[in-house]
Amino acid sequence: MHAGLPGPFADLSYPLVVTADEWILHGFSSPNHLTELGQMAQSHIYLKSTLDDAMRDAFRKTRRFLMTVKGLREDEAVTLISVAVDFGITQVVNGNWGVHAIIRKALFARS
C-alpha cells in the first residue's frame, strides 16, 4: 500500500503506469512470489507460473481499478473490460509471468 497517493489510489498495491493517454495495470501469476514461495522462490516460481493465473490477476486488478477509481458498477466494469481493454504479455523472463491491461483514458472523455 502507498499512503502517499491520493483518494482511490491510496491502497494501490501493484504496478500502475500512467501515461497521457492510458492507464496500464500489471498482473502476475504470483503477485508476491518472493514472500509466497520463500527462500527458493526464484527457482520454484517456474513450477507454479501460468499465463492463466497472470491473466486472472490482471483482470481482477483492472475490474477493481475501474470500480474504485472510475466509479463503475461491477457489471459495467466487466462489460468495459470485455469490449475495450487490451491485454498483453508483460513478462515471462524471470518465471513470474505477467499480463498487462491497457485502459485508454479516451473511454472516459466527456463529449
UniProtKB/TrEMBL annotation:
Organism expressing this protein natively: Cupriavidus neocaledonicus
Gene3D superfamilies for the chain: Acetamidase/Formamidase-like domains (3.10.28.20)
An annotated Gene Ontology molecular function: hydrolase activity, acting on carbon-nitrogen (but not peptide) bonds, in linear amides
Protein name in UniProt: Uncharacterized protein
Keyword list, A-Z: Plasmid
UniProt superkingdom: Bacteria
